[in-house]
């Protein structure tokens, strides 16, 4: 059974200061860890409590949410992402907040969208940085298309990590399943730039 390790979650506030506040969940990329995106916390809006979560699958020196497309067939990748999404939903059941938003980088961005597919009613928004939507029909897509939560989707023109087929699918899928804010950054590789972080902050502030 896939689970989230609560002892590995990094919080921006102690438990006594979390009640009555929105929650922003950070989801790292493949082979990374919970400390990666947590470094952005001082540059994000102050109102939400931030929780950076560790992926459940050990990969080298880091962790992942699902296998890469080069490591497994599409059905296995999708099922593994669903397992990770359900594990996060179970962990969220142990937390208290007024609302929940998502911010994910790379595979963490893909998991953000997979969480929307699994439980669109649970989340106020998602910010997907250098990420993608996992290809294929999903049982939750129809409900998500009706709800169309706000999604920020940013990527760079020099990102060689996310393959063109993933980008094409995401560009086709997102407009019908979200209220989309999309930004493309000239000269940006597979990373996060200051202009993108400024745009993300504007997107987050508009929702808090």
What is the strand and helix layout of this fold?
Blueprint: E1 10-11, E2 23-27, H1 34-38, E3 49-53, E4 57-59, E5 62-64, H2 74-92, E6 100-105, H3 107-118, E7 125-129, H4 141-147, E8 150-156, H5 164-177, E9 179-185, H6 194-205
Parallel strand pairs: 2-3, 2-6, 6-7, 7-8, 8-9
Antiparallel strand pairs: 1-3, 4-5
Could you give a quick summary of the protein structure above?
The chain has six helices and nine strands. With 208 residues, the chain is α/β, with parallel strands linked by helices. Helix 2 crosses helix 3 (107-118).
Task: Please explain how this structure is put together.
This protein is an alpha/beta fold. It has one domain: Alpha/Beta hydrolase fold, catalytic domain (Rossmann fold, 3-Layer(aba) Sandwich). The chain contains 6 helices and 9 strands, in the order E-E-H-E-E-E-H-E-H-E-H-E-H-E-H. The mean pLDDT is 96.
Features:
alpha/beta, Rossmann fold, 33% helix, two-stranded antiparallel ribbon, 208 residues, single chain
Q: Give the oligomeric state of the chains in this entry, treating copies of one chain as homo and distinct chains as hetero.
A: single chain
Number of helices in the DSSP assignment: 6
Mean pLDDT: 96
Largest sheet features:
7 strands, mixed
Flag low-confidence runs: none
Strand content: 15-25%
| Record field, number of beta strands | 9
Supply the helix-strand structural class.
alpha/beta
CATH class descriptor: Alpha Beta
Helix proportion of residues, in percent?
25-40%
Span from first to last CA? 34 Å
- Our Rg estimate from Cα atoms comes to 16 Å
Overall CATH architecture: 3-Layer(aba) Sandwich
Instruction: Determine the CATH topology.
Output: Rossmann fold
